Amino acid sequence: MAVLTTADVLKINASEELGGLIDEAIKSNPELGYFAASPITRNAYKTLVATALPSVGFRAPGTWRTFADGSLDARTVECKYIDASWCVEKALAEQSDWGADMLYAYQAQSHLNAAFYLIAQETWYGTLADANGFNGLGAFIGGTGDYYIDANAGESSLTDTTSVFLVRTGMDGIQYAWGSNGQLTEGEIKDVLLANKSDSTLTGAWATAQEVGGWVGLQISDKNAVCQIGNISDTANKKGLTDNLIYDALSRFPVGKGPTGIFMNRRSLRQLRQSRTATNATGAPAPVPTEIEGIPIYVTDALGNAEDWSSSSSSSSSSSSSEG
To answer: Which of these, 285, 286, 231, 289, lies nearest to 262 by C-alpha position?
Structure first.
């Protein structure tokens, strides 16, 4: 059975124009091109997460054994509305050297790009990126346990940290859930009056606008489907990303259920490359890493370089990463 992605789900009901915008927006946000996605009828539903295996055992004929079910937790997956609607004043559009239609197309593309970028940030940081969004993988891990590795354990006052996530996608792993059967609202482009009435005075201006939006959430079906390497620093004498850290993370996954993707920002990719020693006869620098043990590396700007997991109200994690 083929695995659907966000593009597959959203383009089924979208116009040709919106479908093209979706393809372009995904190019800059690899999360939406990698994670599996499913359309769902409702915007909230319950799913079961396996947290422990059932009890089995050998027994001799004629003897009994104890039966015990595996542990399943019921989790609610809530989709949140992402609003990519746009509006531009008609007078400004008419002044554009591009022409009004080109400006409208630019508005639609830039707003969808920004919406997909926010979904990518929400995937890792959850409500730290946007308090009105869905819960992310960082909060699911919670900075503790077997599936969290602190690259600079015991260090304090680190202000330049980032994370790397190893994930397994799919129905039995992690995937996006797109509500309303995966349909983006795609309103017609029309003129609207932006008005404000104060006492008996009406002020406003004519604009052109389009409603674009949809319902999206993150489903986690297996607690063993993600591992976070956190507290990765770029400060002198502090630990950056290395192969040892990644192999430590790989060792945490059950056999046969390893990660299918590794996500990091450009700075972490640079650190990983610099940690390697070139072994070829010419002494050329080590090549830029693209995979580890056959697991592809995805470089994303949605992982920031100034993470703050302490508060959901204010966090610099929502900013894009700095230069690689």
So the answer is: 289
pLDDT of residue 33: 96
In the predicted structure, residue 318 carries a pLDDT above the cut 90: no
Bridge-partner residues for 230, per DSSP?
Answer: 150
Residue 50 has pLDDT above 80, yes or no: no
Name the DSSP letter for residue 316. Answer: G
- Total-model pTM: 0.86
Question: Could you tell me whether strands 71-78 and 44-52 are parallel, antiparallel, or unpaired per DSSP bridges?
Answer: antiparallel
CB contact set of 316 (below 8 Å; sequence gap of 6+): 304, 306, 307, 308
Q: How far apart are the C-alpha atoms of 231 and 63, rounded to whole Å?
A: 53
Q: What is the DSSP string of 177-194?
A: EEHHHHPPEEPPPEEEEE
Give the three-state DSSP class for 102: helix
Rounded to whole angstroms, what are the CA distances from 321 to 176, 233, 270, 273, 301?
Answer: 23, 13, 12, 17, 5
Question: For the chain, first and last CA: distance in Å?
Answer: 37
- If one counts every other C-beta atom within 10 angstroms of the C-beta of residue 92, the result is 13
The two beta strands, 148-150 and 226-232, are parallel
Count of CB atoms situated within 10 Å of the CB of 309: 18
Q: Identify the burial level of 170 via C-beta atoms within 10 angstroms of its C-beta, where 0-12 means exposed, 13-18 middle and 19 or more buried.
A: middle
pLDDT at 180 (0 to 100): 93
**DSSP strand E in 182-225: where?**
185-186, 190-198, 201-210, 212-220
User: What confidence score (pLDDT) does residue 300 get?
Assistant: 98
Instruction: Tell me how many degrees the CA angle 125-130-132 measures, rounded to the nearest 5.
Output: 120
Planar angle of CA 31, 36, 37, nearest 5 degrees: 100
Whether the Cβ atoms of residue 320 and residue 285 lie closer than 8 Å to each other = no
Q: How confident is the model at residue 211 (pLDDT cuts 50, 70, 90)?
A: very high
Tell me the β-bridge partners of 295.
Answer: 292
